[in-house]
Amino acid sequence: MKGAVGLIAVQTQGYAEIDPRALNAQDIAGPEYAPPAFSLSRQDASYLKELLCPEDPAVSHPSSVAVELNASSWVERNRPAYNITGYLPGTAASEGGRPDDSAFRTLRSYFDGFQDDNCAVSMTFGIIKALIDSGYQPRYTIAVCALAAEEWGGVCDSKFDWSTGAWNQVFRVHPEWQGRVIADLNFELPAHAHNTQDAIRSTYESADFLKHFCENITVPKEAYPDGLTVLAPIETWSDDFSIAISGIPSTVNDFSAGPFMETHYHSQYDNEEFYQEAVYRFHHELYTRLLVTLDQLTLPPLDFSRHFLAMKSSVADCLAAQSNAPAEVLEEIPALLESISKVCESADLLYEKIQEINNHTVSADFPMVSGLSSKLLHIFRKMQDYFVRLDWQDAVCFPHAAASQNLCHLEQAVHALESQNITAALEALYEVDNNCYAFLFDEEVYYHFTEYILHQPKDRLMWGGAGRILHHENLYGLVQRLKELDQMAIPGSLDVEIRRLEAAIRRQQAYLKDDLHYMKQSVDKIQALINDCLETSSHYNKEKNGENQ
Asked: Where is the domain boundary, 79, 109, 143?
């Protein structure tokens, strides 16, 4: 539509820094009518650029150059991708318990990558082989999954085409796993130390259990000199996020914090030269122990207070940032904070009950235990539905956070315009939702990449999930106008632009008020569910005491 017959992408930083011959591979996530697109290395690109724009103008070049491209790439519609799944049966299934109560899975390789993810696939086999060879008989069935289409071939023209194999596994292929699987262990690039300290990244609800588990782990100095920690919450762009929003508590070996992700990942330099045996061996041992520990539990070890404490901190930050907001907005916050404090107390008490039951050997087919496990996983799913949202950069946040952040940036822009500082105002507006696109692309592109998130069928959003990105503020026209004014020697009055921003502020304040009210109602619903679990656990204590007598 723009007149181009093709698009050549050349990475100049990040992935290209390791070597001038490096090729990066990424999906396009654009419309199917876009022209052919492909990557070139810096080395090859420099040759073409020299022909187009010679560094020495005195050097004559032909007016035209014939270039032959030898490439083979094709896309076939509606071709199946396969999730490969195996099972290590547990004894609880044969004793009347529930199969598939603990899940263990990884994902497929991409770009023939050594770390991402051949090492993850082989590590999965290594762990399961160790369990089998040792004669270990799992209590619950362990599901092993190699998931297809993590980053390619999922959904045309969708930002959320990543991790489609994981999303389909739990929402379409095996929806019955929801409410039954107590843990998902995901592996990403596990044979390389991305930092001096290793980390297990998890959902908030599993963090306390994992911290206690890590206290008994000895970390080899040659692998991670600064030891092992636990991080929460999990992040997007990885299979574990898709699993978690289905209601399955998820973890992943943290892999995104080091330089490897910026220079080697998704290139031909993700190869065996970066294999670190001490790291790989440690991860085998760490996650085998974690898997066995989870298998020996009676109930999923979920501490819901961790999620609410993070929410309380976020709401308190919002209160500080919006101290000048209208009274009808601010009055929502005290009631919300009170409800959060109350539910934290109940969640702490519930986790004590969970630990008490898990510290005693309880038959898996004990009726109360089966019911309580289902109720705990139901609460976990509702926590993801009610409180897990994404901003336009796909960072995980609480429902009120997007509007609160937008308000801060919009108010900064107003103050800047009142001081005739258009440059500072534009810097603030760049941070509002996806309006950075307004600085870089034309209106058609801006609307295309806005609408394909806001107005797509639910089954095309995959891990993005319908309703997880909210309250978009369209500033395209205003940004273009301010860019023009910023080029003028004397821009003149900015009253019109200020009024438009003030209208945007009023809209975002209304969104924030609604979000805070919604969160209060949702917290109260979780409170009722936790109270029900506490009542169920009290019945267990009575029955246990009766058995003891």
From this structure: 79
